[in-house]
Design the sequence.
């Protein structure tokens, strides 16, 4: 209970110690008074000549001259001003007066000692406090009650500090009992706590404001507050909340600027197509190595970040579309803990799929189509024959005759999915480790359960300090996955289901042993069943190993060197087995089942093995240092070389014996084998330099000199620089008083990036392509040799220039934060061939050249509001991004007419637009048809009331190609938005992700537009159509409806690409809701569980869209797709 | 544990790091890391240095020729030339090939890429490192192929630029120097004729002693091509008009010399006695059907053969009748007009007997009876209702007539009344969806035994057959006034066919014989063009279908019920051949070519 004074040259150490030890407060007060009086009697003479000398050195000189000791603590010297003084034989008293003037200190002379203290509180309080000093211990934990290792604990106003240890614990001694602890940790909100509060569990709340967050950037990390590029990041723990098989589906809505569209719900193939800012496919880097991320177990991921602007330039010739950086978890400094995560879910089909007609509607519309066809003949002598008599139709309507629901027969309500994961996380100062094992099983919607996706993931990361300077890291990971589906593709099956007639039985004579041919001659039920039709299986084995050594160069402070080697191996085995099967009809005469159809004849097997090897070497030097507390510099030089080899082997056999799905079981007829092989290589030199002054002015310069194997020598290397700068305005003096503003940063960046992604390699080489085609001159097939054509020795990558400006604001300690980015990307050198410069008799096309251009612009806004009211804490963060692209220069032949120029000249035109006809409603009567502009090239004689009427834009009385105009957007959404809501109350946590997209259209044609298209069934929604009051009477009155009257396969008139069918696909989805409960600690401690949380989750729960009949993300086309699924799950996270 | 002192440790780590960095910069530095080569590119030394290289090169050249075989599609997937003539309609409802006016771009084939390749070959073969006689043969093949390529062009576009050597260009060169004007149509025909004369002189009579080369072009392939080319030139001279200073059209005065050249070339083939009409037995229908299924027959002059799985076509896949298809199927539906153009064996007109003389429908005990005594070639070319096929029957029925009321359906699965009897036959016809629209399917070229999946058909394609040579000969002879030769040649054809011979001959009869003998062999479209009758034969032409109806009798087994027939409008658009399509439009460029009429 005493304070350890530092004495300067103290000759009375023991005395003083004792003195201070034994004194009681009252005694000191008396003693002090005495001393003050007696001090006056000393009159030592001091001589000093000092210029900007630290105070403490001056004290030392005075001590030598006067014999007076100075009692002072080290901490007091903080903020003292160096002394400039010139005195000759001056009184000690006068000298001290002069010395302490302007210093934040005061002094008393006691005996032969000068006792120095802080100016306020008064000496008395100071001394009293010093006798109340206490020792404390505490523990710092995160939002999941996990210990936070390495948090900084500062005592406010003092220089005492501590760092939390492996268990999150810390201790501090001799604190005044009114001390305030300031606890900070990267990525968490800095917390102030008084000693009277509970120090045993000091909760830190993650700083969603992100000010202290560390973000992963190109070849390194950076505090978010210092980032000058445009980067967005999400934590792996956030992604792990949405239980989805394919990681790409949990990203949407979470990162402004990252756009994703999910086109399918098929297990193993349901990944979203992802891009950054609408730029096109982005480069994916996992732990520093080009790779892919969608099959990674979400529980392995630490952070997921995207480089949206020119900061991607350090990745060179493949980074023009932005870079996705995935960082996996490392071991943390803690005693080993085992985590177990599991969930079980039901995929509930489908978010939305058009309902098909039942037999009654089918029969009714079939008859209507026959009547309309007869009417259109305009030949009263032709006989009107109907497919269904009045009586039969009535039987379908009252259920006397059955309706076969093929959708329900083949597709089940719910398909299960489950996931289990176990991981070990721990480490000490020398070794840290993280092990993860994940298993996922996802079943498909077919009743046959023939679609299945399974995946095993593993990761093992070990980081060991070999000595003080050298660290070795080993990061091994891999997955084994297997996608199994029935032989026909999901799209083909869905197409077939839509075609199946509801009056056509599924089984012959109702006997489930004999499938009936149905009107498709293939029977959808058979097609969904791998035991009948065969299967397609796709097995991937992927392994990745990254080994690296980091060396902290001891004789240069701040310099480190790193070398790393990575090997990736991917083996994919695709097996397509199509099995012969039979369909039967029941022969009433013989009471037997006769084979009516043989499908998939002969049985066949097609196997392809793909093999990929990639190696990457990186060697780098990294330097980081702060000079004079003001100039912070860091730099990186890195050499990267990569090599990839790929090959494939394919074999095909046909079978006589049907149930042996192995190559050796096949016959020799028609057998074939093929193969391919290729290699690629790249290398680059990367440099990156950061400088900031007082953390106020931030600069970054990066470059990459990158080379690719694709082009001719001399055209392989490119230099890609990028610059960015940031200004933290809130650090300026004029802002300092605005306590509401925690952060206000302006960012700008510019850079040049390359893109060799879609360019065929070796376009500079001439020769003869082999083999190219075959011909039979006799009995043996001779493979062909074909001249390769004109070459382009100067072909090179596309060049992309990206500019970005952004503003980050954080107000009221993170209560409100906002980040705004605007960007513009211009691309030049897109490949095309020159038009018409060579005569078309030349006989060889010009090679591709870097001629075309385009540009893309847009913005992103992200807002975050977080707050805590009592035990309730919540955060809400909406984001929106907008992107639009315009074609730049386009090499094209001149247009011969202004109409063609209008319809086809895309130079300088916005992309993502659609041309078509403007529908102005439906014809209400025959009179209206007779007086309207001619739109069927037959004087409107083919039209019926209810048919679509088009706008005659050029007023020439004829509807034709000249009346087309821009009627909507293309199928790429220009606006994506999302909203993340997190609420925590006591043990409960709730997160909600809303996501939407806008400014895009979808167009569904064929059977989604025309009843009975090409022999298909029709949609239930076509019931609401123009029809006659009496179906069987061609002359009866028309009753209006939403769609034109039924014509089999529709008419050309109604099928024109028009606003009538164009769907505004804008939507908003409740993408995910997750409600969790963390079990109370007390309960868990008894069973040695550190932490346990249970949760329920729902994905794709509701969708709000103007498109009511099909999922808004359903790809444009005819609905031949595996519909997106809803997913209900319940899960568990435990750690021991 | 090993003990290092600190200094050693430091040294080890430093040298370790340095050596790794060094390794990075030197590893595989024996060559530039970025120097890679594609694995499928072969050098010119190999291509022109060996017989096998030259064989590989000729593979590409033979494939370059548009021989209009099974893989020749028009306008849309599974669009065949016979579906844009008066031979057939297409069953599918989709595709621009259903447009009422034949598209002027559907037949485009501006294949100067192939011409460049063959010119390159012709220039390089003389210097190839192979023996001289073989080089001479390769050269002759090259000239045959180049002549064929120009024939493909001239019959489409009229006069085209004649490029006889490889043009060179490097980036920055003056492209205008490469520009070549269109030649006159006659010049192109003459160039082809002279090339074929040269080729036929150097090509071997046959490859019988070289089994590996037997489907290469021989002397008679060159003569057969010449015979056809000269026939075209003669027709154009006689029936066309010279326009654009001869860029299209040939002076009428030239007609006879071309007829003569056609007749001479055909005569050389006939007199060689190397070929004869395929005639293997009394079943004339089966004989005619088999002619198109066997590559090695007495009639084949130049044939493209196929081998599964690597060199195949999908003709069976696209054209199989509805219930015999693997997928797709049905494409070519022969029109009722085509069916009726096949005469009866006694030479009487082939009109089907649907109604009796009083105009009442004839009831047939068996639906096949209506085709009794038709030209056997019809049975070899067309699948008619209730024909047997691949072990089954092509069941073509439009519906049921019960008590005078007609019941039909647009679905093959709908059954009649309370029975399980299907209203429509399992093979159609329907007015929508895929099944036949005319009541007929194609039989010529089709595998009569097996269902053939996509890319598995190997039926050979006879580019030139003796039957055509006889027809060419007859036509040329008749046009030259040599009616005796003409009637002889036609009667050879009719005798083999199994119908009565002719005593007298007319141009119409020669053309009619050509239509039925060569049906679906992709001659008709070009014949209509060169005779300049396309736009009169096809002008808002509505084709017809034959609808068989079953006469329902309650309590009777359907196999015993009678059939009646209806001549119905085929549910397809009418067809018009636009006047300007006598020539295709020239693909334009800058500076432009003189364009053909009707394409401005």
Sequence:
């Amino acid at each position: 209970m005493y304070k350890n004074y530092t004495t300067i040259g103290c000759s009375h150490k023991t005395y003083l110690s004792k003195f201070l030890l034994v004194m009681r407060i009252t005694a000191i007060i008396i003693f002090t008074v005495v001393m003050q009086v007696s001090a006056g009697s000393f009159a030592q003479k001091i001589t000093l000549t000092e210029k900007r000398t630290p105070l403490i050195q001056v004290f030392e000189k005075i001590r030598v001259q006067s014999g007076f000791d100075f009692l002072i603590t080290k901490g007091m010297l903080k903020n003292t001003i160096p002394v400039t003084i010139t005195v000759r034989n001056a009184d000690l008293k006068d000298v001290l007066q002069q010395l302490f003037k302007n210093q934040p200190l005061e002094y008393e002379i006691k005996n032969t000692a000068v006792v120095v203290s802080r100016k306020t509180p008064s000496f008395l309080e100071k001394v009293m406090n010093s006798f109340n000093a206490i020792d404390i211990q505490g523990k710092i934990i995160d939002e999941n009650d996990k210990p936070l290792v390495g948090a900084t604990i500062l005592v406010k106003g003092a220089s005492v500090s501590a760092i939390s240890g492996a268990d999150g614990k810390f201790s501090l001694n001799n604190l005044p009992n009114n001390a305030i602890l300031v606890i900070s940790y990267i990525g968490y909100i800095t917390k102030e706590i008084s000693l009277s509060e509970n120090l045993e569990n000091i909760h830190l709340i993650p700083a969603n404001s992100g000010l202290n967050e560390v973000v992963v950037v190109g070849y390194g990390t950076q505090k978010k507050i210092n980032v000058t590029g445009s980067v967005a990041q999400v934590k792996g723990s956030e992604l792990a909340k949405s239980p989805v098989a394919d990681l790409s589906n949990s990203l949407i809505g979470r990162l402004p600027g990252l756009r994703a569209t999910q086109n399918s719900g098929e297990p193993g193939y349901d990944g979203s197509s992802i891009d950054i800012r609408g730029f096109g496919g982005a480069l994916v880097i996992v732990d520093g190595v080009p790779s892919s991320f969608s099959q990674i177990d979400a529980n392995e991921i630490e952070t997921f970040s995207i480089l949206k602007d020119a900061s991607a330039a350090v990745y060179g010739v493949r980074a023009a579309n932005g870079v996705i950086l995935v960082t996996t978890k490392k071991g943390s400094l803690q005693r080993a803990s085992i985590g177990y995560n599991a969930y079980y879910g039901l995929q509930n089909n489908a978010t939305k799929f058009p309902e098909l007609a039942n037999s009654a509607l089918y029969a009714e519309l079939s008859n209507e189509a026959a009547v309309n066809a007869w009417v259109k003949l305009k030949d009263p002598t032709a006989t009107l024959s109907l497919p269904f008599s009045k009586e039969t139709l009535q039987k379908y309507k009252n259920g006397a005759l059955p309706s076969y629901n093929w959708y329900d027969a083949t597709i089940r309500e719910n398909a299960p999915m489950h996931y289990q994961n176990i991981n070990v996380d721990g480490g000490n100062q020398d070794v840290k480790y993280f092990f993860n094992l994940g298993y996922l099983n996802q079943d498909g919607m077919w009743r046959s359960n023939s679609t299945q996706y399974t995946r095993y993931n593993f990761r093992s990361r070990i980081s060991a300090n070999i000595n003080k300077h050298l660290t070795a890291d080993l990061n091994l990971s891999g997955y084994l996955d297997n996608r199994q589906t029935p032989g026909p593709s999901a799209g083909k099956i869905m197409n077939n289901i839509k075609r199946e007639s509801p009056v056509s039985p599924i089984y012959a004579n109702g006997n489930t042993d004999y499938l009936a041919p149905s009107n498709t001659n293939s029977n959808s039920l058979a097609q969904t069943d791998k035991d009948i039709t065969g299967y397609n299986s796709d097995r991937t084995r992927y392994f990745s190993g990254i080994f690296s050594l980091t060396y902290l160069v001891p004789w240069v402070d701040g310099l480190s060197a790193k070398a790393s080697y990575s090997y990736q191996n991917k083996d994919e085995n695709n097996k397509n087995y199509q099995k012969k099967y039979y369909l039967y009809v029941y022969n009433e005469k013989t009471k037997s089942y006769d084979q009516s159809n043989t499908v998939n004849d002969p049985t066949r097997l097609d196997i392809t093995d793909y093999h990929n090897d990639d190696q990457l070497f990186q060697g780098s030097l990294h330097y980081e240092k702060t000079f004079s507390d003001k100039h912070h510099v860091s730099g990186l030089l890195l050499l990267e070389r990569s090599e990839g080899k790929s090959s494939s082997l394919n074999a095909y056999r046909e079978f006589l014996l049907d149930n042996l799905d192995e190559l050796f079981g096949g016959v020799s007829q028609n057998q074939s084998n093929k193969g391919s092989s290729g290699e690629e290589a790249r290398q680059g030199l990367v440099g990156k330099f950061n400088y900031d002054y007082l953390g106020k002015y931030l600069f970054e310069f990066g470059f990459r000199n990158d080379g690719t194997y694709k082009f001719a020598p001399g055209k392989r290397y490119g230099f890609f620089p990028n610059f960015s700068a940031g200004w933290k305005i809130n650090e300026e003096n004029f802002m300092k008083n605005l306590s509401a503003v925690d952060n206000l940063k302006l960012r700008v960046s510019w850079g040049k990036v390359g893109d060799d992604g879609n360019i065929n390699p070796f376009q500079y080489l001439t020769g003869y392509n082999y083999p190219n085609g075959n011909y039979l001159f006799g009995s043996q097939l001779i493979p062909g040799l074909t001249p390769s054509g004109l070459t382009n020795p100067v072909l090179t990558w596309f060049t992309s220039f990206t500019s970005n400006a952004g503003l980050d604001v954080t107000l009221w300690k993170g209560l409100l934060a906002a980040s705004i980015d605007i960007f513009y990307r211009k691309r030049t050198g897109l490949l095309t061939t020159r038009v018409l410069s060579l005569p078309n008799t030349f006989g060889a096309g010009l090679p591709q050249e870097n001629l075309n251009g385009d540009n893309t612009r847009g913005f992103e806004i992200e807002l975050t509001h977080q707050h805590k009211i009592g035990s309730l804490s919540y955060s809400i963060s909406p984001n929106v991004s907008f992107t639009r692209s315009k074609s730049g220069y386009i090499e094209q032949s001149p247009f011969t007419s202004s109409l063609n120029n209008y319809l086809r000249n895309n130079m300088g035109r916005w992309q993502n637009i659609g041309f078509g006809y403007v529908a102005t409603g439906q014809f209400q009567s025959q009179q209206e048809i007779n007086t309207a502009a001619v739109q069927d090239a037959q004087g409107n004689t083919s039209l019926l009331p209810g048919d679509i009427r088009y706008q005659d834009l050029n007023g020439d009385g004829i509807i034709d190609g000249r009346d087309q105009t821009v009627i909507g957007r293309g199928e790429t959404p220009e606006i994506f938005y999302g909203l993340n809501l997190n609420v925590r109350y006591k043990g409960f946590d709730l997160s909600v992700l809303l996501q939407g997209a806008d400014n895009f259209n979808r167009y569904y044609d064929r059977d989604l537009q025309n009843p009975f298209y090409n022999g298909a069934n029709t949609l239930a929604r076509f019931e609401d159509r123009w029809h006659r009051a009496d179906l069987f009477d061609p002359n009866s009155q028309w009753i209006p409806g939403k769609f034109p009257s039924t014509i089999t396969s529709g008419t050309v008139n109604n099928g024109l690409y028009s606003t009538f069918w164009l769907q505004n696909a804008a939507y908003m989805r409740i993408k995910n809701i997750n409600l969790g409960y963390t079990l109370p600690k007390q309960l868990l401690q008894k069973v040695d569980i550190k932490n346990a949380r249970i949760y329920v989750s729902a994905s794709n729960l509701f969708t709000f869209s103007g498109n009511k009949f099909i999922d808004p993300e359903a790809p444009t086309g005819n609905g031949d797709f595996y519909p997106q699924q809803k997913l209900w799950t319940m899960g568990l996270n435990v750690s021991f | 544990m090993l003990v290092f002192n600190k200094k050693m440790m430091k040294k080890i780590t430093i040298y370790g790091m340095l050596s790794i960095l060094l390794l990075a910069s030197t590893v595989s530095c024996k060559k530039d890391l970025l120097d890679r080569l594609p694995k499928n590119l072969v050098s010119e030394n190999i291509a022109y240095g060996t017989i096998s290289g030259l064989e590989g090169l000729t593979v590409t050249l033979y494939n370059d020729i548009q021989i209009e075989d099974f893989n020749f599609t028009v306008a849309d997937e599974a669009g065949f030339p016979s579906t844009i003539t008066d031979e057939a309609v297409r069953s599918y409802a989709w595709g621009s090939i259903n447009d009422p006016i034949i598209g002027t771009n559907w037949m485009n084939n501006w294949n100067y890429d192939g011409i460049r390749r063959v010119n390159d070959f012709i220039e390089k073969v003389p210097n190839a490192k192979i023996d001289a006689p073989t080089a001479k043969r390769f050269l002759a093949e090259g000239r045959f192929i180049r002549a064929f390529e120009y024939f493909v062009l001239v019959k489409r576009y009229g006069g085209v630029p004649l490029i006889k050597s490889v043009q060179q260009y490097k980036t920055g060169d003056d492209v205008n120097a490469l520009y070549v004007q269109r030649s006159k149509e006659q010049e192109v025909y003459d160039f082809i004729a002279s090339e074929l004369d040269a080729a036929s002189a150097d090509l071997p009579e046959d490859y019988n002693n070289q089994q590996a080369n037997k489907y290469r072009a021989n002397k008679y392939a060159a003569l057969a091509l010449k015979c056809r080319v000269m026939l075209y030139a003669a027709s154009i001279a006689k029936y066309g008009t010279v326009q654009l200073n001869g860029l299209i059209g040939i002076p009428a005065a030239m007609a006879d010399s071309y007829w003569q050249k056609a007749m001479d070339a055909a005569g050389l083939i006939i007199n060689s006695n190397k070929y004869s009409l395929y005639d293997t037995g009394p079943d004339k229908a089966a004989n005619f059907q088999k002619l198109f299924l066997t590559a090695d027959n007495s009639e084949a002059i130049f044939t493209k053969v196929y081998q599964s799985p690597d060199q195949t076509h999908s003709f069976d896949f696209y054209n199989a009748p509805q219930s015999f298809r693997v997928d797709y199927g049905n494409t070519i539906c022969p029109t009722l007009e085509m069916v009726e153009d096949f005469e009866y064996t006694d030479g009487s007109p082939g009109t089907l007997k649907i109604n009796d003389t009083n105009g009442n429908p004839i009831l047939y005990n068996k639906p096949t009876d209506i085709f009794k005594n038709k030209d056997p070639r019809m049975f070899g070319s067309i699948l008619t209702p209730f024909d047997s096929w691949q072990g089954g029957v092509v069941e073509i029925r439009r519906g049921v007539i019960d008590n005078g009321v007609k019941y039909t359906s647009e679905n093959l699965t709908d059954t009649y009344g309370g029975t399980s009897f299907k209203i429509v036959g399992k093979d159609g016809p329907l007015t929508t969806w895929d099944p036949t629209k005319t009541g007929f399917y194609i039989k010529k070229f089709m595998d009569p035994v097996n269902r053939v999946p996509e890319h598995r058909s190997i039926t050979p394609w006879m580019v030139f057959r003796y039957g055509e040579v006889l027809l060419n000969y007859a036509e040329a002879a008749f046009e030259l006034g040599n009616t005796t030769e003409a009637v002889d040649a036609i009667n050879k054809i009719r005798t083999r066919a199994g119908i009565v011979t002719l005593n007298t001959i007319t141009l119409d009869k020669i053309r009619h014989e050509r239509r039925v003998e060569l049906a679906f062999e992709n001659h008709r479209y070009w014949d209509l063009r060169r005779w300049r009758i396309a736009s009169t034969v096809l002008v808002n032409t509505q084709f017809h279908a034959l609808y068989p109806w079953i006469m329902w009798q309650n309590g009777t087994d359907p196999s015993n019920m009678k059939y009646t027939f209806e001549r119905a409008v085929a549910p397809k658009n009418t067809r018009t051949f636009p006047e300007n399509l006598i020539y295709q439009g020239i693909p334009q460029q800058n500076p432009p070519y003189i364009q053909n009429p009707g394409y401005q």
In short: Chain B touches chain A through 102 residues (CB under 8 Å). The radius of gyration of chain B is 30 Å.
